[in-house]
Amino acid sequence: MVRVTPKRGDVIWADLDPARPLEMPKVRPFLVITNVDYNKGGLLFGVPISTVINNGPYEIPVIRNPSFSGVILTNKSREIDWLSREDANYNRSACNNSEVKRAIALIKAFLGS
User: Fold this and answer.
1) In the prediction, which pLDDT does 60 show?
2) Domain count across the chain
3) Widest pairwise Cα distance in the chain
């Protein structure tokens, strides 16, 4: 199987276990935030997507995507080694551009920039 390097805005399915108590566990959709040039090295930074909606200020609703639904959890951002995870399944799905821009803006706000 040829693995295509994910790009910003793509969604992969990744097993986020083992997870610490405040981290998101399980296999779930994961929105890629970093650009394709960074991701070619095997690591990528992104945020999980959850079906549990708490209406928090850090949540971004996913709008009309046939592959997954729920909210993007920008407060649960993390880096994963997508190349070494056999379970990281690039499903050729993506969030829309406005969702990606909102996720990046919220992450920047958390970082204070």
Assistant:
1) 95
2) 1
3) 41
pTM exceeds 0.70 for this model: yes
Domain containing residue 107: 10-111
10 Å Cβ neighbour count for 75?
14
Task: Tell whether 47 is covered by a domain.
Answer: yes
How far apart, in Å, are the Cα atoms of 43 and each of 16, 28, 30, 40, 56?
A: 14, 17, 13, 7, 28
When pLDDT is averaged across residues 34-53 and rounded to a whole number, the result is 93
Angle at 39 (CA atoms; ends 85, 47), nearest 5 degrees: 70
Question: Can you name the residues that pair with 89 across neighbouring β-strands?
Answer: 13
Taking alpha carbons only, the member of 50, 46, 41 closest to residue 31 is 46
**Would you say residue 2 lies in a domain?**
no
